[in-house]
Amino acid sequence: MTSRQTSGAPLSGPPAGLRERKKRRTREALLHAALELFDAQGYERTTVDEIVEAVDVSQRTFFRYFANKEAAAFAIQDAVDARFLLELRQRPMSEAPFEALRRAALNTWRGVADAAEDDVTAELRLRTYRMIESTPALVAAHMRRGVDLERRTSLLIAEREGLDPETDPRPGVAVAAFAGVMRLTGRLWGRRQDANVTSLHEMTELHLGLLHTTLLGPWRS
């Protein structure tokens, strides 16, 4: 067949949609393998070689999707954080800052089933959370990531309100209170036997709802 006869369908490989689905499946397989190995034998004892061997791909493929092991360990949390910031950006400007934070958090858990990593079961999410909390190197990384998320959230709140966060402390104060409640909620959720996305949503709503009365209302009645 001559080149003139090949002017029909291109011979450049599978369609873009198929390639993207294959990339997503590969990433999900690597993520599942990494989280299962981290949980089974410990984060620090797990090597990238073991992860790629479980999926039957090369190291080069792993690093195409994850910068390092830490990136794989926090992939689920990164997706949740990104969704939260997106939800916060979309909150109506008529909402007060803390109400926008609260609704963004609740909508994040309500819509987490749409996240790319939602094929990870609730049980594996919980085991991953506990693994991070029990691994010193990851606890430190978790704290760094939390500080960075608070910074980005404060900047977003300041932008919504037309404030300069360098001179007005209110965005930082609001986000610090919010983040503290969210950390407490995460720790309590991690101890539950029925830990799942629904229970996390319920606990988040309960604890954020208690913040105002806890700080300003009387405790004795």
From TrEMBL:
Q: Where is the stretch described as Disordered?
A: 1-23
Q: Where is the HTH tetR-type domain?
A: 24-84
Where does the chain cross the membrane? none
Report the Gene3D superfamilies cross-referenced here: Homeodomain-like (1.10.10.60), Tetracycline Repressor, domain 2 (1.10.357.10)
DNA-binding residues: 47-66
Do the record's keywords include Cell inner membrane?
no
Keyword Ribosomal protein belongs to the record:
no
Keywords in alphabetical order: DNA-binding, Transcription, Transcription regulation
Q: Which InterPro entries match?
A: Homeodomain-like_sf, HTH-type_TetR-like_transc_reg, HTH_TetR, MftR_C
State the Pfam families in the record: TetR_C_14, TetR_N
What name has this protein been given in UniProt?
A: TetR family transcriptional regulator
Protein species of origin: Streptomyces flavovirens
